[in-house]
Amino acid sequence: MKCPCGSNQSYELCCGLYHSGKASAPTAEALMRSRYSAFAKNQMEYLRETTDPQTLDKIDEEANQEWADRAKFLRLEILNASENGTKGTVEFKAFYSVDDEEYVHHEVSTFRKQAGEWFFKSGKVKEAKK
Ligand SMILES: [Zn+2]
Fold first, then answer.
1. Residue 85 CA to ligand 1 centre (angstroms)
2. Cα 32 to ligand 1 centroid, rounded to whole Å
3. What would the DSSP string read from start to end of 21-88?
4. Which of 1, 32, 35, 67 has its CA 20 to 30 A from that of 45?
5. Where are the domains of the chain?
6. Which residues surround ligand 1, an ion (CB under 5 A)?
7. 66-95 per-residue burial string, b: 16 or more CB within 10 A, e: under 16
8. CA 14 / ligand 1 centre spacing (Å)
9. CATH of segment(s) 11-125
10. How far, in Å, is the centroid of ligand 1 from the Cα of 92?
11. If pLDDT is split at 50, 70 and 90, which confidence band does 127 have?
12. How far is the CA of 18 from the centre of ligand 1 (A)?
């Protein structure tokens, strides 16, 4: 099976490595991709583990779970990814459908590196346009 993140690699050799804990995402972009795949694969535990602890209490995990249950994840598009020391920024579009209706979630996420591991810090949703 191809990885949901769109890398064209098999899931086991891509985001599956991070979900199973065999490896850590080496870049902010890799972490972003693996978090998208986590939604697609219903790996909610992974989403929690890769969220900055300081951000975690602001995350509505129930809403995330509901979204993961209802949505079909179609594809991920990385528009921009940059890193500067322990800070990373990734702009992406996540395409998904709910009840056969297509949607796109356009977000700029910021990431933080701590002890060699990347964590999701916060996200800013951009105006949704197809
Ligand atoms: Zn992947």
1. 23
2. 9
3. TSS--SSHHHHHHHHHHHHHTT-HHHHHHTB-HHHHTTS-HHHHHHHHHH-EEEEEEEEEEEEETTEE
4. 1
5. 11-125
6. 3, 5, 7, 14-15, 37
7. eebeebebeebeeeebeeeeeebbbbbbbb
8. 4
9. 3.10.450.50
10. 14
11. confident
12. 9
Ligand 1 mean position, distance from CA 101 (Å)? 24
User: Could you tell me the two tokens for 39?
Assistant: 């939604």
Per-residue pLDDT tens over the stretch 31-64: 999 999 999 999 999 999 999 999 988 889 999 9
For ligand 1, the distance from its centroid to the CA atom of residue 116, given in whole angstroms, is 20
Residues 6+ apart with CB under 8 A from 113: 28, 85, 86, 87, 88, 119
Distance from the alpha carbon of residue 73 to the mean position of ligand 1, in angstroms:
13
- Cα atoms in the Cβ-side hemisphere of radius 13 Å centred on 103: 16
